User: Which sequence fits this backbone?
């Protein structure tokens, strides 16, 4: 039984590019066509980066970045503060931060500045690969670096409202009640004597649930009695404020008759 053998010979890339080229010519690396047969080596050719590739990803050379990027030069504008090409549709509202892209993606650890994957800027100012962000958002809505909420407030409000409604429908049993001091990671404010809930404690300043418990002040029946007294006091204050508003409206109506 006969057998067929295949032999493969590996050539350096420089040898392949200079195949059938005039080696005495120093501009051989800057050409996109063979000097003998005229065949084109690549649809896109950058003589600065010595890059040959197809036009499928719309490559272009950015002189400020110092190398070629993909996505089309007409779609990006270089930001000299960030040191990065920014999507023109996002350029006017992007958060300028020096050296923001001279770091690794917090998820996959690839260097963002030279990465060919699209980057995403979170509200906190940290950058991340867009695909990494999409995968992260399926189970965590916080920045992997600073732990601030990675989505805008408008996008998070429906979720926060649903959590607040869940707290209303699921009161904590008296024996599990707690009075706590909290800190909000998003707006960096602190609040004392708040009612703890297993769903979370909502920040009164920014409505975020991205809060942490700094200290437990009371627990159990003592905490439940304190929270009930606090709620009664707030209800009384709200009723008095409402009565004052009604009285002011009545007075303004009477004055309007004269």
Assistant:
């Amino acid at each position: 039984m006969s057998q067929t053998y295949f032999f493969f010979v590996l050539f350096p890339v420089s040898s392949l590019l200079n195949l059938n080229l005039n080696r005495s010519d120093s501009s051989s690396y800057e050409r996109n066509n063979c000097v003998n047969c005229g065949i084109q080596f690549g649809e896109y050719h950058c003589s600065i980066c010595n890059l040959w590739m197809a036009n499928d990803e719309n490559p272009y050379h950015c002189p400020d970045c110092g190398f070629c990027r993909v996505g089309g030069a007409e779609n990006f504008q270089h930001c000299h503060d960030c040191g990065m090409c920014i999507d023109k549709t996002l350029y006017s509202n992007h958060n300028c931060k020096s050296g923001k892209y001279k770091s690794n993606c917090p998820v996959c650890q690839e260097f963002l500045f030279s990465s060919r994957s699209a980057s995403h800027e979170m509200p906190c100012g940290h950058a991340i690969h867009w695909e990494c962000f999409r995968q992260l958002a399926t189970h965590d809505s916080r920045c992997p670096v600073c732990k601030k909420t990675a989505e805008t407030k408008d996008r998070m409000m429906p979720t926060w409202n649903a959590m607040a409604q869940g707290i209303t429908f699921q009161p904590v049993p008296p024996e599990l009640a707690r009075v706590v001091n909290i800190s909000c990671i998003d707006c960096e404010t602190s609040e004392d004597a708040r009612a703890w809930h297993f769903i979370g404690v909502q920040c009164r300043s920014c409505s975020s649930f991205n809060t942490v418990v700094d200290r437990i002040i009371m627990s159990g029946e003592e905490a439940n009695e304190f929270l009930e007294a606090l709620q009664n006091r707030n209800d009384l204050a709200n009723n008095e404020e409402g009565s004052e508003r009604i009285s002011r409206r009545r007075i303004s109506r009477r004055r309007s008759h004269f």
Q: What stands out?
A: Residues 63 and 78 are 9 Å apart (CA to CA).
